[in-house]
C-alpha cells in the first residue's frame, strides 16, 4: 500500500505534559526587528539526529523536553519513534509489558502503547520524533515555539495534560541506530564581548580562571550563573543594543547571565563575552548545580572550531544509512 495515498487518524494523547515540552525545529529567521528571537531546538545536533534517524525532513518539528519529559499514549497504526539525548524513558506496551527505552535507536510502537519520558540524565534537553512527523501549521515559516511571546504551533504554548497531537502520514522508516559518546565538558570557550573593558582586570582574570555555578534560574531564555562577582568599573547600564544567543551579560549584581535561544532581542547590560557557536549544544545541556569554567579564544579560532563542529555533525548524520 502506498502510505501517501491515505489520510491517517493517528494521534497521541498527552497523559503528562512534562516540565517544559514544546514543538521546535531549526529556528525562526529574520524577525529580530519585531522582537522575536531565533528560538528553535536548544541542542541543534540532537535535533538533527532525531529527524535523520526517523527518516523525516531535517527541519521537521520534534518535541523538545527539559529534565522531565512528557508521557504520551499512542493511538494508530504501528510506526517508529526515536529519542535523542541522554534520556531515561520506557515503553509501556498495550499488553501491559514494559520495555526500557534506548536513545538513538528507532523503536516501533503500536496502538495503545505509552511512551513515558521519565527524565534526562546529567543533562537538560532531549528530543522526541516520530516517523511522518506531527501535523502542525508553521507560524512565520517555523514550527518553533516561543512561549513568552505565545508564538508557534500549539498556540505558542507547552504541551498540556489531556491534549491530543495529530500526526502526518507515516513514510518508510527502516530500523536505525547510532552509537553516540557523550564527551566530557572541560571548558566553555568564549570570545571577548564588546564591553569587556568595562570590568576590572581582577574580574576578567576571575572570569577565566574560576568556576561558576549554573543556578536553578535557568530556562530557554537564559542561564543565570553564580560565582565570583564581576566588578564593573565604568557603567552597569549601557544603551540598549541588539543581542544574539550566547551573549554573556553582566547586570549590576555582577553575576553573569548567558542568553539562550529564547533571549530578548535587545538589552542594556554590559557584555563581557560571547559563547562560541561550536560549544552552544554542550552549554545548554549543563544542568543546574553544575560548574562552568570559561576559556578565552580568538574570533578566528572560534570560526575554525565551528567549521569543525559542523563537519563533525554532518559526519554523524552521514553515518545514518
Could you walk me through the main structural features you see in this protein, from its secondary elements to its overall organization?
With 321 residues, this protein is α+β, with helices and mostly antiparallel strands. The chain is 14% helix and 28% strand. The chain folds into two domains: 3-166, no CATH class; 188-318, Cyclophilin, CATH 2.40.100. It has five helices and 21 strands. The chain has an eight-stranded mixed sheet. Strands 7-6-9-4-1-11 form a six-stranded antiparallel sheet, with no helix packed on it. The protein has a five-stranded antiparallel sheet with strand order 2-3-10-5-8, with helices on one face. The mean pLDDT is 94.
In short:
With 321 residues, the chain is α+β, with helices and mostly antiparallel strands. Helix content is 14%, strand content 28%. The two termini are 23 Å apart.
Oligomer: single chain
Number of helices: 5
H and E order: EEHEEEEEEEEHEEHEEEEEEEHEEH
Coarse structural class: alpha+beta
Shape: elongated
What is the number of domains? Answer: 2
The major β-sheet equals: 8 strands, mixed
Average pLDDT for all residues: 94
User: Would you count the extended β strands for me?
Assistant: 21
Biggest sheet: strand arrangement: 20-13-14-17-16-19-12-21
Beta-strand level of the residues, as a percent range? 25-35%
Amino acid at each position: 500500500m502506498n502510505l501517501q495515498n491515505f489520510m491517517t487518524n493517528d494521534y497521541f494523547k498527552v497523559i503528562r505534559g512534562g516540565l517544559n515540552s514544546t514543538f521546535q525545529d531549526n529556528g525562526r529567521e529574520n524577525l529580530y526587528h519585531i522582537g522575536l528571537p531565533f528560538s528553535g531546538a536548544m541542542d541543534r545536533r540532537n535535533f538533527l539526529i532525531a529527524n535523520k534517524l526517523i527518516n523525516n525532513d531535517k527541519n521537521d518539528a520534534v518535541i523538545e523536553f527539559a529534565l522531565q519529559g512528557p508521557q504520551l499514549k499512542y493511538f494508530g497504526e504501528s510506526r517508529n519513534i526515536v529519542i535523542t539525548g541522554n534520556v531515561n524513558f520506557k515503553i509501556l506496551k498495550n499488553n501491559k509489558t514494559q520495555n526500557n527505552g534506548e536513545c538513538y535507536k528507532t523503536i516501533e510502537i503500536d496502538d495503545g502503547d505509552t511512551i513515558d519520558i521519565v527524565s534526562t540524565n546529567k543533562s537538560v534537553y532531549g528530543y522526541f520524533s516520530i516517523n511522518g512527523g506531527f501535523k502542525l501549521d508553521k507560524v512565520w515559516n517555523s514550527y518553533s515555539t516561543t512561549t513568552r511571546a505565545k508564538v508557534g504551533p500549539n498556540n505558542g504554548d507547552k504541551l498540556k495534560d489531556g491534549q491530543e497531537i495529530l500526526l502526518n502520514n507515516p513514510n518508510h522508516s527502516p530500523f536505525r541506530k547510532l552509537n553516540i559518546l557523550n564527551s566530557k565538558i572541560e571548558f566553555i570557550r568564549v570570545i571577548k564581548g564588546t564591553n569587556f573593558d568595562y570590568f576590572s582586570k581582577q574580574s576578567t582574570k576571575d572570569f577565566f580562571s574560576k568556576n561558576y555555578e549554573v543556578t536553578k534560574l535557568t530556562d530557554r531564555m537564559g542561564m543565570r550563573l553564580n560565582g565570583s562577582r564581576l566588578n564593573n568599573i565604568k557603567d552597569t547600564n549601557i544603551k540598549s543594543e541588539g543581542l544574539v544567543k550566547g551573549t554573556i551579560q553582566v547586570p549590576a549584581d555582577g553575576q553573569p547571565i548567558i542568553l539562550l535561544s529564547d533571549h530578548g532581542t535587545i538589552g542594556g547590560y554590559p557584555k563581557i563575552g560571547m559563547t562560541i557557536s561550536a560549544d552552544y549544544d554542550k552549554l545548554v545541556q549543563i544542568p543546574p548545580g553544575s560548574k562552568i569554567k570559561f576559556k578565552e579564544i580568538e574570533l578566528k579560532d572560534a570560526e575554525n572550531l565551528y567549521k569543525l563542529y559542523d563537519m563533525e555533525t554532518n559526519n554523524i548524520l552521514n553515518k545514518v544509512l
